[in-house]
Amino acid sequence: MRLAASLPWFRAATLVLGLTVALASLSARAGGTVVSGPEARQWLLRMHNAATQRNYQGTLVVSAEGAMSSSRIAHYCEGKVSFESVDMQDGQPRRVLRHNEQVLTLWPGVKTARLEQREAIQPFPSLLSGSQEQLFERYELVSEGPGRIAGFDAAVFVLRPRDGARFAQRLWAEQGSGLLLRADVVAADGRVLESSAFTDVSIGGKTKPAAANTVQGALKHLDGWRVLKPASRRTSLDAEGWQLKAQVAGFRQSSCVKRQLEPAADDNRQTPAEVLHAIFTDGLTHVSLFIEPLRADRHRSGGAAVGATHSWMQAHGAHWITVVGDVPAATLKRFAAALESKPR
Prior knowledge:
Helix content: 10-25%
Strand content: 35-45%
Shape: globular
Structural class: alpha+beta
Mean pLDDT: 86
Low-confidence stretches: 1-29
Number of strands: 22
Order of helices and strands: HHEHEEEEEEHEEEEEHEEEEEEEEEHE
Number of helices: 6
């Protein structure tokens, strides 16, 4: 998969935004108290429930490697039904509307829209992506005391990894609701690789989204737009003739889909290529594994990093492998090394 195409697609599901912290601040907060199992589970469940079951609106800012961008996000929930709108405030105008797992992405400048069903990777400020038991196999929760973000009192925690296969995360949870107000991804040497935070936020309220802020409402006003509806189907690595010969650092597969690649402007193939996309989680973070036909004239092996997100690309026989995730590069290489074709 072309990295320029794969990274935005992968990161659109996660929409995290924030502010960078000085290394001196991290040193001053070193230490902390390990939170007991029941209390740790209670805090993580509060953070997760606040992000998925409460209404909130605010401005999110992300910073990584000196670059910064912002979005306006609004989240509404009615029982098991959730709506979300995200408006990018920088660069090319873009709007993302979500109704449960149905996602509509709008690019007004070029009058293009994409409607798709996405697997449930919870965006910021959600936290849990697997079971709590799975998470605590690989992390421990450490309390660093009180803090303050966007005018709210917060409890500050660190999810500290038990091995070197993943990064730590420093979390600011609003004291009253548990809503995650800020999350920093921290390397083993203490560097903040990426930081995500609300700069302003309102929590609660019973306001429902206007029709224009829903997927179905927006679809009614797209006359003259190019509307893409990429087809995908659920599958498994096993069904497609692949397997991991060894489990990678506590990660478990959470989903697998097959979909057509959007061709490049100069791609003249008669039949669009397909990509297999498997997602793995350790309960907190995700790794995406993409498998597609090899194009020797386009693909180049190697790695890249943007903030906390690392990627690794290599050939595998007649296929091209791309592994992307907010984990150290060595973890991605383990995925690539573990992947093999099933014996026929």
